[in-house]
User: Which sequence fits this backbone?
């Protein structure tokens, strides 16, 4: 650790949990490290000398932006270096999340983790690199949600507290716009499941290279989803205006119910209110691993650690893999899951006094190369493990971004599993589309219904 890092860690230790203070921007000297000993988005370029390689630019850009399933012959051709199961878990415990340990302890006869060679695949468009370096010396976070003086890129490539790291995840580049074919499965302990099919249209505002919106507009993205199946939910529409600072301006949402044939404001599309159509198996703030307002938690930056996380999950997201291949009783088919050793930022979020949430505490494991949340350990108010979230991270080389394909939520109390971001049997995400802001108004919602 050099003296710049040392000074930064003193700031972290001194302000851990003190999210009422504005987080400090970094000096020009610190920002100059981006692209040198740090990657352009703030990860350590050097590996650990053995199992984690140096970052050398990530995987090359390529693939059709109008739709491409994960496909990498090199990744698909690799065999596991070793497998962790209940018999050797103790040997690897220091690199396993508490949630993974809990899953292995509960489902030890079938749950295992295949660990593969580490590939630092993440890369981003040049515009994101440039914007991130500019943000490093200007961006501040007032409280937990008041992002100021940032544009387009990651606001905090050299973070000073836990909240900054989660903000990086929330605003990361994911294309200018997308049509996403998002299927969800509620899986019972015996392996039976109910599938919900959705299409989603998203226009990114802050994270748009073509038309980056200034923070003054306080808009992160526009979102519109339509339920295709099952028949009892088909035709339901959800429109969301996702604001950047949700303490200043809470997100706005509208729902069209085909049974009632009317559109209404949805006042509770936030926090631990159940996401529509999930039968309570996913809270609103669990979408995309974590989203929305952050004011109900204290965000402590624990540090950076080498951990086994789901990564380069090409096989899991492939169109050659069917839902029946993935879904199993108690947990997903772990023979399809791929784990690699990566450095992650560990952020511990504890419920603030005077606020409420089903989760009393959450521990986040955030990939240093992509600022994408890979795993979350979710505890109840007794501080007992309740749910475990996994984002099976996959690099989208066609737009140069990282995301979870699929995302999985394990309920350790009920034994149910919830999967989202499944597209294997439909169509890949289409990033060639463009939308007008007018396509995401309540008036436009009514027109969509009439069509």
Assistant:
């Amino acid at each position: 650790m050099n003296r710049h890092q040392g000074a930064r860690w003193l700031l972290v230790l001194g302000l851990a949990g003190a999210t009422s203070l504005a987080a400090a921007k970094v000096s020009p000297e610190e920002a100059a490290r981006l692209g040198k000993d740090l990657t352009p988005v703030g990860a350590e370029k050097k590996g650990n000398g053995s199992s984690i390689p140096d970052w050398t630019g990530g995987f090359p850009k390529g693939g059709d932006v109008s739709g491409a399933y994960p496909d990498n012959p090199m990744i698909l051709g690799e065999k596991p270096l070793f497998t962790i199961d209940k018999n050797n878990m103790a040997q690897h415990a220091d690199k396993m999340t508490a949630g993974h340990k809990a899953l292995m302890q509960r489902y030890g006869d079938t749950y295992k983790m295949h660990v593969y060679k580490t590939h630092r695949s993440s890369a981003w468009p040049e515009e994101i690199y440039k914007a991130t370096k500019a943000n490093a010396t200007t961006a501040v976070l007032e409280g937990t949600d008041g992002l100021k003086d940032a544009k387009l890129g990651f606001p905090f490539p050299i973070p000073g507290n836990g909240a900054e790291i989660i903000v990086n995840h929330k605003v990361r580049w994911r294309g200018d716009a997308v049509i996403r074919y998002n299927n969800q499965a509620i899986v019972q302990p015996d392996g039976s499941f109910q599938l919900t099919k959705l299409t989603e249209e998203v226009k990114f505002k802050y994270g748009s290279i073509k038309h980056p919106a200034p923070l003054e507009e306080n808009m992160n993205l526009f979102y519109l989803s339509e339920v295709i199946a099952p028949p009892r939910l088909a035709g339901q529409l959800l429109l969301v205006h996702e604001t950047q600072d949700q303490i200043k301006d809470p997100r706005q949402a509208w729902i069209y119910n085909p049974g009632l044939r009317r559109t209404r404001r949805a006042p509770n599309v936030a926090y631990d209110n159940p996401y529509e159509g999930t039968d309570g198996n996913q809270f609103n703030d669990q979408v995309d691993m974590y989203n929305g307002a952050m004011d109900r938690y204290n965000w402590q930056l624990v540090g950076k650690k080498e951990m086994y996380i789901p990564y380069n999950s090409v096989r899991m997201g492939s169109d050659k893999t069917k839902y029946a291949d993935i879904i199993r009783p108690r947990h997903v088919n772990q023979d399809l899951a791929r784990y690699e050793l990566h450095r992650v930022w560990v952020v511990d979020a504890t419920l603030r006094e005077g606020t409420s949430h089903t989760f009393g505490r959450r521990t986040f494991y955030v990939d240093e190369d992509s600022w994408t949340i890979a795993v979350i350990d979710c505890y109840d108010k007794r501080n007992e493990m309740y749910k475990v979230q996994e984002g099976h991270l996959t690099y989208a080389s066609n737009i140069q971004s990282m995301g979870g394909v699929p995302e999985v939520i394990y309920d350790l109390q009920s034994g149910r599993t919830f999967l989202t971001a499944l597209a294997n049997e439909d169509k890949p995400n289409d990033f060639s589309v463009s939308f007008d802001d007018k396509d995401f108004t309540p008036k436009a919602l009514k027109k969509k219904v009439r069509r």
Observations:
- Confidence is low (pLDDT under 50) at residues 1-21.
- The radius of gyration is 21 Å.
- The chain has ten helices and 17 strands.
